[in-house]
Amino acid sequence: MKRIYLDHNATTPVYPEIFKAMEPFLKDNWGNPSSIHWAAREPRKAVDSAREQVAGLFGCQPNEVVFTSSGSEGNNFAIKGIANSKKSKGNHIITTVVEHPSVLNTCKYLSREGFDVTFLPVNSQGMIDLSQLKDSITDRTILITIMFANNETGTIFPVDEIGSIAGEKGVVFHCDAVQAAGKLPLDVDKLNVDILSISGHKLYAPKGVGAVYVKRGVRLTPLIHGGHHERNRRAGTENVAGIAALGKACEVALRDMEKETSHILGLRDKLHRGLVERIDHIRLNGHPEKRLPTTLNVSFEYIEGESILLNLDMKGVAASSGSACTSGSLEPSHVLTSMGLPPETAHGSVRFSFGKSNTDEDVDYVLEILPPIVERLRSMSPLYAKGQTLNR
Ligand SMILES: *Cc1c(COP(=O)(O)O)cnc(C)c1O
Asked: 299: which of 75, 82, 243, 283 fits an S-S bond (Cβ 3.0–4.6 Å)?
């Protein structure tokens, strides 16, 4: 059977070039980079050069890069780290309703611990209102944490403008750039960010490694206390192989970004156009233009996204309903409902997310098999029969 992977926002395969970069540290170069003897030399060099490669993607100094175990850890580190280090100055945090659970639930946790959190709403395209952001800043505000691009819809936030607003008010700005890394330029100076997190496995490196940019002078209380690793910012013997892979992934991302983006964007738009031509009552979720080149989230009215996904899976196509983290739950996506989608429409959503290895043939195949699936599911749907009567 064909196997087509259209779920790159959930995770990406490890790219061969990146696997090669990590392999020596799973085999011969197994030393602890903190040791002072021969076994440490190669692993330490690998961590140092990976730090330079990540700094290259961020446009920052290598000593502003902290390695973590994941995007989730990076987000926790940033948010709890600022909350802890600045709690004497204030207790107000600003975020949005559409953040990844690793930001949303960290903020909810802090609100139970006595912090005051503003969750900015979004409009029907998943966009926040910058004047509302400005108005919600008070002299108690210590942190603004807003994602670069949404994992479910791909909507891209105006990070540079958010950064300027935060900067003018002297508020620390953290950006969850996990979905943007490798797809959009991440120049931290131009973006006016103080802290920014990325994750390896969304960027063709393996799971279990991530990095955070922490601007020089920004003080964060560590999440993990222990040894002096990462200049006392994150204890734990380094995941050398993962770090080497992440470094390589950042180098590859910088090198290939332009080429990959136009390839992927072409496929995404071809699928969208093809679906609109072949299927009625579908709705694009997310911003029509300011959207990740990888991401196409559409609602098929009157039917369940989950049923579509099961049928696609039987034909070898991997896609997702919103986010990997909420699948398995019967709740509609918090991102889509907060954009004002009725729960039925949110339930009917499917996210196709593209990556490096997808081809025109992949899109042709989906366009061949998906319309009959939708037609069959709708023919069994009482909602569809009712909707048709009402529309007549
Ligand atoms: C995947 C993802 C994360 C979490 O990264 P992990 O490495 O899986 O913990 C955080 N934010 C966004 C936007 C993501 O897509």
From this structure: 283
Q: In terms of DSSP H, where are the helices of 86-154?
A: 101-112, 130-136
Q: Give, for ligand 1, the residue of 11, 68, 199 to mutate: max count of ligand atoms closer than 8 Å to Cβ.
A: 199
Please say if 325 is a catalytic residue: yes
| Model confidence, pTM | 0.96
324: tokens are 């990997």
pLDDT at 306: 93
- Dihedral sign computed on CA atoms, order 258, 263, 267, 273: positive
Q: Is the CB of 178 under 6 A from ligand 1?
A: yes
pLDDT (0 to 100) of residue 389: 64
Supply the pLDDT for residue 129.
Answer: 98
Cα(202) to ligand 1 centroid in Å equals: 8
Q: Which ligand 1 atom sits closest to the C-alpha of 69?
A: 7
Closest atom of ligand 1 to CA, residue 148: 13
Q: What is the pLDDT of residue 392?
A: 46
Spans of the chain below 70 pLDDT:
322-330, 388-392
DSSP 87: T
Nearest CA to ligand 1 atom 6: 71
Q: Is 16 left (phi over 0), alpha (psi -120 to 50) or beta?
A: alpha
**Computed over its alpha carbons, how large is the radius of gyration of the chain?**
22
Q: Is the CB of 7 under 6 A from ligand 1?
A: no
Within 8 A by CB and 6+ apart from 165, the residues are 130, 133, 134, 137, 144
Pocket test for ligand 1, best of 8, 69, 72, 184 (most atoms within 8 A of CB): 72
Q: With CA atoms as reference, report the closest residue to 325 among 181, 177, 156, 202.
A: 202
> What percentage of the chain has pLDDT greater than the value 70?
96
Residue 199 Cβ < 6 Å to ligand 1: yes
List pLDDT tens digits, range 201-223: 999 999 999 999 999 999 999 99
Which residue in 367, 194, 200 sits closest to 282, CA to CA? Answer: 367
How far does residue 199's CA lie from ligand 1's centre (Å)? 6
- The pLDDT score that the predictor gives to residue 390 is 59
* Ligand 1 atom having least distance to the Cα of 325: 1
Closest CA to 67 of 97, 36, 46, 94: 46
d(CA 311, CA 327) in angstroms, rounded, equals 16
